[in-house]
Amino acid sequence: MEVDKYGPVVKMGSGYELRFEDDSDFEESYQECAKNDLGETPERRAEGLEELRRLIREEKKLYLPTDESTELYLLAFLRVCKFYPESAFKRVKFLYKLRQKNPKYCNDLLPSLEKNVFEQNILTVLPSRDQHGRRILITECGQRWKIKNCSLTEIFRGIELVMEAAILEPRTQVSGTVLLVDFAGLTINHVWQFTPNFAKMVLDWIQYAMPARLKEVHIVNQPYIFNMVFAVFKPFIQEKLRNRMLFHGYDHTSLLAHLDAKCLPTKYGGLMEIETDQGIELWNLLCYYEENYKVTNGFGYKKKK
């Protein structure tokens, strides 16, 4: 990672750059998406923020500042709920209650504490958005995942850190995210790491808490044994998410029917000549925002005395 005049950036491959954006001046395509998909107008945005702030202030045991410093964060909740303040508030409460109940997975979420998972090169944020302007996160849960070196808890915490950075990108709030999960090399030892309790917690986070528009989940390179993993998660998957899950196996053509080749690495049939082995660079990029993570770690329900 290096820092140029625009901020921190990770150089990937030949001519590709990954940086987290904070520019709220949208291109026309994002403006149209915000208006048509989310019903966002300046008036609805202002009204939604005002009402959501009021609801948060009335939730006495919840600490979440409602001044200008958290406006972009609150917009993430409003945008995922298409500017219905009550629905956004429900998601806020669910998130912080989930974090309170699951300290193992959610407490002290700081990049500086989670270097190990990024050293394994399990997580990759692609530098190019897809043809719909969506962020793409790759998780490699097979060959790259050495159980003795990295726990499933660490992988989930790493995903949380990446998503927290992504949801503060205005373009990502509007266009959403795509998750590509690569199960090449999955073994029975990997399968044993997934429990029903873990599956329920993760899916509760995705479906009811995370302030992000998860538009598609692509499962690739999954061996037959993957069915055992999916059986653990299946009871907790709601119809909306189930309809957004696509299983491609080893068929790159199937994947490319949904994601443009220009935004995918060659290992997945794309045109981007980059390797998914720059996890430590991604970690350095997240560490640049360590102070921001420290602030958001302070949000939540007050502990009982």
UniProtKB/TrEMBL annotation:
PROSITE patterns associated with the record: CRAL_TRIO
CRAL-TRIO domain mapped to chain residues: 110-276
PANTHER family, sorted: ALPHA-TOCOPHEROL TRANSFER PROTEIN-RELATED, HL01515P
Source superkingdom: Eukaryota
Taxonomic lineage of the native organism: Eukaryota, Metazoa, Ecdysozoa, Arthropoda, Hexapoda
Gene label: TTPAL_2
GO MF, any single term: phosphatidylinositol bisphosphate binding
Name of the molecule in the record: Alpha-tocopherol transfer protein-like
Pfam families for the chain: CRAL_TRIO (PF00650)
Cellular-component GO terms for this entry: membrane
